[in-house]
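Bench log. Compound arrived from synthesis this morning; before running ITC I wanted a structural hypothesis for how zinc ion sits in the protein. Inputs:
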Amino acid sequence: MSQDNSVVRLEDYIPTPYSIDHVSLTVRLDPLETFVTSTLSIAPREGGSEEAALTLDGDDLVFVSARLNGDVLEDSAYSASDEQFILKNPPQEAFTLELVTKLAPQKNTQLMGLYRSNGAYCTQCEAEGFRRITYFYDRPDVLSVYDVRIEAPVEVKYLLANGNLVDSGTMSTPEGYPEDQLWHYACWQDPFPKPSYLFALVAGDLARVEDRFVTRSGRDITLHIYVEHGKEDRVDHAMDSLKRSMKWDEDVFDREYDLDIFMIVAVSDFNMGAMENKGLNVFNDKYVLAKPETATDTDYALIEGVIAHEYFHNWTGNRITCRDWFQLCLKEGLTVFRDQEFSSDMRSRPVKRISDVQQLRARQFPEDSGPLAHQVRPEVYSEINNFYTSTVYEKGAEVCRMLETLLGKEGFKAGLDLYFDRFDGQAVTIEDFIASFEEACSVDLSQFALWYRQAGTPDLVATYSYDAAREQLSLSIEQSCPPTPGQPTKKVMHIPVRFGLVGRDGSPVGFTSVIDANSGQEIGKSDCTVLEIRERQHKFILTGVSKDAIPSLLRGFSAPVHLRTNLTHDDYLCLMGHDTDPFNRWEAAQFILMDHLVQQTRALQAGANTSSHALDDSILEALKACLMDDSLEHAFRAQLLQLPIESDVGREIGHDVDPDAIHRARESLRHALSTALGDSLIDLYKALDDKDTSFRSDASSAGRRALRNGLLDLALARKEEAISDLAVAHYHNATNMTDRFAALASLTRNEMPAANALLDAFHAEFTNDALVIDKWLSLQASAPQEETLQRVKDLLSHPSFSMNNPNRVRSLIGAFAMNNQVQFNRKDGEGFKLVADIIIELDKSNPQTAARLANNFRSWKALEPDRQGQAKKELLRIANTESLSKDVADIANRCLQ
Ligand code: 0A1
Ligand code: ZN
């Protein structure tokens, strides 16, 4: 197994001995010979160790020359390799160091540093990509002011970098280029000191869409979105999302934009979603481009969220940044929280919350319960790129939300205001962040801070009982947290549990006071909505409870925990029908369905046939009542229709998982529901047909489409020809991608014979539209049938697929590994083998994307023994591959530990 002991530890943090206050970069662009001249203004830090060598980071660099204060350096004064530049005896006062490096962006397949995407030059520097451009202290606590001059032939039309444009024009052709080739240049200045990971440069013959935004203090900001030629008609939604984000950040967080211009560039080759470079955000074009004929409602919502996320980073990440990469959640958790709040305000709050919790459960919970579990603020890493995880992002956001729940909206705002005031222009830590809230609200958050330091999803077990004679409801909550790698035992956490009471007849029930039975103190009156669990076994008594009531716990999913209760099936049915908290109505339905699926799966594993557990009539009635309830939002009703996903059922079962049995159980539940709901599904489907063919992308129109498509999908579970015909008609009559793709997906997933011809027709219609083809690839890879494995193998050599483009790889292989539990986890091991083969191949050109694929092995230890054996064999094969990247080795080795 490849061994790599070069780990970085939080406890080893020390500041650099020198500061780099100013960086002046000249970049002469060329596909194979780009020259970067970097002039650094360096000074020893006060209190730094005297005469320490200056050691700058590099990665895959070709060194050209070095000058100190303008003079060429003697060979003995420095050493330069592809990975480091060392100035052996730097002056002990301020000095300038000029370093020249040579790059070949055309050959950069890792998509880190300076690379080319469809002919345009672009950069990606987070986390450690700047060192692939020039030697630098490539770490977030070194903040510098940047001036950038870009030079290129005039065909490279736009020359962009961070900050404000200060000069541009034509220049004489540099030596070595044909004399008749015209060259131009542009100079950019970014007045805000920033870490190197926020540097960006983009240059190319792109199309530009222009708009403007006037800030609340009256400053006029130019907005530019750059896309490939021909895509200009897909930018409106992104531009509109940007303007709404700018306004919302002013209204809700008092944050105003600070430069004169804000630019977004959409590129088709990008390892992640998007990047918040100061004033020059670079996006995976998937999160910019949308028009109704090619993008679904989900795409529209994602674009709005990602545009907002990157824009919000301007304050949470850029103006205040991270001291070191261990603090990544400082910017990411908070910024995800902010983008989730924005989307909640733009759309439906309960619907957004439900979909965020679905995501958290589908991605973060499996991470937290397997070998890759880590803290929200990790303390050791070997490859930082592998820590852009759901735990850092989504659980990090949940921690911010819990803070808001505990401190109240006003307290939370006061803490954040203090944070912005105090740390603007600095690189800080989670401790600084927490201290702002402690100080602003005069509270002690030391126990709460464990959320950053302890990995694993806490288990809560809540037990309630009602004493009619005393009119008291007692509630006992026990917490525990399972062991995670490196953390066998856990301390007791501080957990906010939002709650309320619901009468058995559905009426809300009040109480007079809340007593903490552990201390005997009264802690709240009738308006108390949050219980703060701070002890391993924490008991509360609600007094003045006039009638038998059901506690509705963890409303709005007030903490990222796994909750079990002694609520009965009937209690959950009552909550499902009547809870005033919409999240918990949905959650009650999920609980009942999950319970059924777990039992059914166990029975199947024990040899029963598929129909062993009939679905209780009361569940059907309750579900039907919600579905038909016109007072509920369409989008919410669509969410009620979604059964728990297969990987969630697997996690609930926890060990000896058999994905085939889960799939069969879920399919039989879908069939039973579909049969029992009968014609009512199709009746409602028809009633929801909006004859108005003009497309509106707003949340309510999207909700109507979601419900209608969900009904059609469930109806198809019956596999009847008439319904298949209806779905085919739905496909042909669709005026937008949401409806069209929903029909195609339902026919494919439900294995209807009509699907194949439509898949071909769909491909023929959208051959030249890569983002639509991604949907086509991922749909086929997600289909649970036996033949999918071969189909995925065949698609690898399809002209529409390319191993060089991360979106294509994620759509085909990522979707197979992530969304296809049955085929990825095949008992014969062929699913694991296919994904392992791709990881090994892709690792040679793009280790970061390969490592992301490898993450899909994270739940292998919960599988039944045969499948475990197959998964382990492939993980070992990956780990033993020669010249494996650090990225993939790290994931494979941690999975195997
Ligand atoms: N900071 C970005 C995420 C990001 C991280 C690394 C990247 O390079 C490979 C790119 C983007 C965000 O949170 O949006
Ligand atoms: Zn981010």
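What the model suggests: The chain has 26 helices and 33 strands. The domain at 320-452 is CATH 1.10.390.10 (Neutral Protease; domain 2).
ITC booked for Thursday regardless.
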